Amino acid sequence: MSATATHPGASSRRSFLKQGTIIAAGLAFGLPWFGGCRKSPSEIEGIWQELATNLKGTLLLPDTYRGFAQKAAPWALQYAGKLPQAIASCSSAADVRTCMLWARRHQVPVVTRSGGHSYGGFSTTTGLMIDVSPMNQVSYDAATGLLHAGGGARNLDVFHAGKQLGMAVPHGRCFGVGVAGLVLGGGIGFDMREHGYTCDKLVETEVVLANGDIIVCNETQHSELFWACRGAGGGNFGIHTSFTFQPYNVGNIVAFDMQWQGGDTAALLSASQQVIEHAPKELGLKLNVLKETPGTPLFVSILGSLNGGSRAALETLLQPMLAVQSPVKSEIRETGYWEGNEFLSEEGLPEYAHERCRFINGYLSDEAIATILQQLNDWPGTSVKASWKFFLLGGVINDRQPDAMAMVHRGYTMLSSIDLEWSATDSAATVSRAQQWLDDFHRQMAAFASPHCYQNFIDRNEADYLNAYYGANLPRLREVKRMYDPENVFNYAQSIPL
User: Fold this and answer.
1) How many CB atoms lie within 10 A of CB 31?
2) Does residue 87 form part of some domain?
3) Are residues 112 and 225 in the same domain?
4) Sequence-distant (≥ 6) Cβ neighbours of residue 43 within 8 angstroms
5) What is the C-alpha separation between 466 and 495, in angstroms, rounded?
6) End of a domain among 77, 107, 131?
7) Are residues 344 and 447 in the same domain?
8) For the chain, what is the radius of gyration of the CA atoms?
9) Do 45 and 180 fall into the same domain?
10) pTM
11) β-strands 239-245, 58-60: how paired?
12) Which of these, 28, 114, 222, 463, could form a disulfide with 217 (CB 3.0-4.6 Å)?
């Protein structure tokens, strides 16, 4: 699908340049600088025309594309005010190469956009946004048994392809999330205990480097970069234009969504630890403790699936929690894999949110549970909600060593996370108080968790982020950075430094 067909409001790249509106666009953003010096309007027009003429895709500009601001907006809406000068909708790796060479020549900063779900808003720029979303094809090679996904494919694209094939790779719940961001930062989902992180199923990826080279990396070609891409590839070494995965066959599952309100929440959380202590690798589980409004009772919910199991087997596993209290909501479906995952999925629409996380080894103590509940009950409130949750880890995730690839987070029981949400109607003071609460809660959880955090829940407030995301793998990642991006072209506030 061409970029022009994907975005029906766009002018052709030649017609908009004739209008001269690119000059106004560049000046409106206060960025009439190229190559480190000020350019005249005619020079600016010529520079952008150079890029537009050489793209097979489409160059979108603020004054000539009706949906520019919406197209440029990230998932984390608090960062939506940062707009690029232009968006290059790329239809191939060659287009990405053209963008990189042009940007290097004119010293324009770039950022890659696939799904745009960076929690820290790092898929935004005031320069050129390289949008790979038109490259969203997903195909299966029967001869090799491998699944191929374009650099712009999203969970929904893999969902549709997998449903036709009866195969899957570890995937998340949000349809709009880009496969690139998911796999390059690790990739969690309900299948991970049985099949590993998403990056564990990656066998090859095509990358456009800062110098414009288009390379393929795998276990034998550019193996050091391949090692680094699986867990630290997002925005650090190059722009990924395709991925090749080893999929697995799927069958029937038991999908479930259960909720409790009020009662003995501490006892429920304690019982949840008994559940996960004896959980088989086929069980995928997210537990959430939700506070909707200050002063109201907490909700506890569990969501997930039991691959190849039965309703009776699931209820036996959950018996410690069911014995504490009957749920106010209980949906359990014995169904096909993709039908069950559709029930568990959501769109992943943009929102105002900040999430802070920690990996936990072992189980929650009574003191940890008391801290979680106290903090949630002390939430000062926004117009939306706040929650604490965990994703169940373990299983085959821990079969690999932490240095087998850049995804260092092995050996943990759960990934815990505090999620704060608000809306545009909340005052700055309200959001500030809530953010302070979030930071305090995150600090208090340090006593019960590791210092390590999930890089796909990237967090601008994490002070020791390099150690938190990459741990003992950081020195090797620096070496790879020096090897493949020696001029640090791919950089952002929390990128791997030289």
Assistant:
1) 16
2) yes
3) no
4) 34
5) 8
6) 131
7) yes
8) 23
9) no
10) 0.92
11) unpaired
12) 222
Distance of CA 417 to the CA centre of its chain: 14
Beta bridge partners of 65: 10
State the greatest distance between any 2 C-alpha atoms of the chain, in Å, as a whole number.
74
Contact 452, 409 (CB under 8 A): yes
Are 146 and 103 within one domain? no
CA distance 190 to 445: 24
The total domain count for the chain is 3
Q: Among candidates 125, 190, 151, which has minimal Cα distance to 338?
A: 190
Strands (E), 4-72: 33-34, 37-38, 58-60
* pLDDT tens digits along 250-296: 999 999 999 999 999 999 999 999 999 999 999 999 999 999 999 99
For helices 93-106 and 41-54, what crossing angle results, to 10°? 160
- Phi/psi at 239 (5° precision): -110, 120
Please state, rounded to an integer, the average pLDDT across all residues of the chain: 92
C-alpha closest to that of 257 among 277, 278, 286: 286
Strands of 86-89's sheet in order across? 58-60, 86-89, 128-131, 110-113
Mapped onto helix, strand or coil, the DSSP state of residue 324 is helix
The model's pLDDT over 191-237, given as tens digits with 9 standing for 90+, comes to: 999 999 999 999 999 999 999 999 999 999 999 999 999 999 999 99
Q: How far apart are CA 262 and CA 469, in angstroms?
A: 36
DSSP secondary structure letter of residue 398: G
* Per-residue pLDDT band at 38 (split at 50, 70, 90): low
Candidates 57, 50, 1; CA nearest to 22 is: 50
CATH number at residue 337: 3.40.462.20
* Both tokens assigned to 324: 């504490």
Domain around 438: 252-469
User: Between the CA of residue 268 and those of 106, 316, 344, what are the distances in Å?
Assistant: 59, 16, 22
Instruction: Choose the final residue of a domain: 75, 106, 131.
Output: 131
